[in-house]
Amino acid sequence: ESQTISSQKKNFTSCMKSHISVGTFNVRTLLTEDRLVELEQALQKTDLDILGVSEVRRANENIIIRQSNYIFYNYGTKRGINGVGFLIKKDLRQNIKYFKPISDRIVELGINLGSRRSLNVIQVYAPTSSSSEEEVDNFYKELEETIIKVKKKTQSKLIIMGDFNSQVGVGKKEENQVLGMYGLGRRNQRGWKLIRFCQQQQLSIVNSFFKKRRGRRWTWQSPDGNYKNEIDFILTKNRDIIQSYEVWSNFEYHSDHRPVVCKLKIDKTIPFPTKNIVEIQKTLDEEKFKSDIQNYFDKKDITVDMDVQTMYDIIENSIKLAINNHPKTKKVESSKLSEETKELIKRREQMRRKKVKSKE
């Protein structure tokens, strides 16, 4: 069920912004509030509009209006495993058309660009090298089905980004529509699978079309820092809208990955609201909700001599279980990191950058 954004009033003004910056980042868990706050505070120092995140590891579907400058959306099926989502600047809140979960590895975001045009952003987290071929095939099958639906929207631009857990290396002549002449490392089997997928879907791997030195190209490093590779990618069927691309090497958030970011050219100025009049609302499937309650209720052994309190407890528990199957929208106050914690984060990042620089 996709989540929609609605407003009480249509009151737009033209913004001079002629581009949107989007990025993807494997955050290696946002399970705790402190991790989410740390990420937000790192983002505050950037001009990024939309960040897709992998390995969020939070369960269920949630839209959280943060006290910071961001709206946080995530989807996961099980606590501590996989999970994907977005952090979107509140400046774009009026432009958000929907969030749509496909699986705990794929989510989609729709952004209104005005004049019936839209930007569709798909964030992914592909199975790791230890996963079975069946898992990988299922991932690409779901991704293909999602892309086909987006392509039917004639006025939409498409960006697919995330941790693909694949090494594609440098492109060959016959791959020049998919892969540029810049890359890192040797292509592995998962890399071949990603390239074939891009060829079938007519997608380009943005990373490979921008010349960067090795130290500004890798997106993941091994725990000891000795092995680095490029496994996080941004793909698009609209290469003409890509204005710039970079890998952030000084992002103050702890992960073995680095954010991959690109700036998208927008033909016209983007409509923005003049007032803070937007509410985020979830579309509740009432029939499914009733059905879920009934299913949980039917699983209980109910007898005619059951006392009122026991019956009440069964009904209450059935409702609670059904609620957990439906997305939540909430507004929370972000806890703040102490000055000591901020200083420790700053020192940690300085030490990490010094260590990385010495090995390059």
Automatic annotation (TrEMBL):
Signal peptide residue numbers: none
Species whose genome carries this gene: Panstrongylus megistus
Record region (Disordered): 330-360
One GO molecular-function entry: catalytic activity
Protein's UniProt name: Endonuclease/exonuclease/phosphatase domain-containing protein
Domain Endonuclease/exonuclease/phosphatase: 23-257
InterPro entries: Endo/exonu/phosph_ase_sf, Endo/exonuclease/phosphatase, Swc5/CFDP1/2
PANTHER family named in the record: BUCENTAUR RELATED, CRANIOFACIAL DEVELOPMENT PROTEIN 2-LIKE
Basic residues biased stretches: 349-360
Domain of life according to the entry: Eukaryota
Basic and acidic residues composition-biased segments: 330-348
Record SUPFAM superfamilies: DNase I-like (SSF56219)
